[in-house]
Write a structure and sequence with these properties.
single chain, flat, 15 helices
């Protein structure tokens, strides 16, 4: 503790001490290395997606494209099914994320009250689902029995609540002073009124964090769609691109020798990752300021 204090100390004249300047330089170097390590794979994927197949096969592609071309993107973007799948993904993400956050919040709020009847049972009930599940076949039979196959509900309902996110949100709700709720009760608010008019407005950080968690999960999800959606017009873009990768791989393995198909087979994975990741990368900066505060609020109990 004393070492940290001495490092962070500045002189009486407001000038940074030598130790603190060294600490800042060292910290800056570490952060630059982290940024490089983080961005290098993304830059490599982008470069590979715009490179020709001969350079990819030869392993000559780094962070700058070689033999620049857009064949793969042209094939994908000119496919009407791609845009239909993209639209499906946007709808599934928006509806699914709303349901996820709403149901998680409505379950987490009562769990944050230790005077809840059957409190220990509900906590154990929630934790049990984190470690044990019915399995793929029972889930498929359940979804089919509820007539949710080939519909949006087969995607957004079965995984509506993540137990991990539930526990984080529960802990965040516990940090809100109970006196605020008591004052609201005196003013005549019901439990539902307190939840919507007191709790949710004070939980912007954790709600934004949960929105980001769920949105990323819904955007990248493809396995549930592969199981429950037989109609190609209902499939999300992640499943469309997964099928495209599989088709390109099989084309390459079968010995197809057309330049266009060889080109697609060589860099389809990179183009796929770029197209799928791009929307999340664009949205994240707007939620980043809530991210750290939301996670810390829900992870540390004061």
């Amino acid at each position: 503790m004393n070492t940290v204090t001495n490092v962070a100390r500045v002189s009486k004249h407001g000038i940074e001490s030598k130790g603190y300047r060294v600490f800042r330089i060292f910290n800056m170097i570490i952060m630059i290395l982290v940024v490089i390590i983080t961005f290098y794979p993304i830059m490599y994927l982008v470069a590979q997606s715009f490179s020709s197949e001969q350079y990819i096969y030869a392993g000559e592609v780094g962070i700058i494209p070689k033999g620049f071309n857009t064949k793969t993107y042209e094939v994908i973007i000119h496919d009407k099914l791609f845009w239909l799948s993209y639209t499906n993904t946007v709808i599934y993400t928006l509806v699914g994320t709303f349901i996820n956050v709403a149901m998680t919040a409505m379950f987490a709020y009562p769990l944050s009250k230790r005077n809840l009847v059957g409190y220990k049972f509900w906590i154990k009930f929630a934790m049990f689902t984190m470690y044990f599940g019915g399995g793929l076949i029972p889930n498929y039979l359940l979804v089919s029995g509820l007539h949710m196959k080939n519909s949006i509900w087969a995607i957004v309902i079965p995984g509506a609540i993540s137990t991990f996110n539930l526990m984080i949100m529960k802990t965040a709700f516990e940090q809100i002073p109970h006196e605020l709720e008591e004052a609201a009760e005196i003013d005549g608010l019901s439990t539902i009124g307190i939840f919507f008019r007191i709790i949710l407005p004070l939980s912007g950080a954790i709600l934004a964090t949960m929105t980001l968690f769920y949105a990323v999960g819904n955007w990248n999800s493809w396995f549930s769609a592969m199981i429950y959606l037989d109609d190609r017009n209902l499939q999300p873009v992640s499943l469309y691109l997964r099928n495209l990768i599989a088709g390109a791989a099989s084309t390459s393995a079968s010995g197809a020798d057309t330049v266009e198909m060889q080109q697609i087979a060589s860099n389809i994975k990179s183009a796929t990752m770029v197209l799928v990741v791009l929307p999340i990368v664009c949205v994240y900066p707007f939620l980043q300021r809530y991210f750290v505060s939301g996670v810390m609020l829900g992870a540390v109990k004061g």
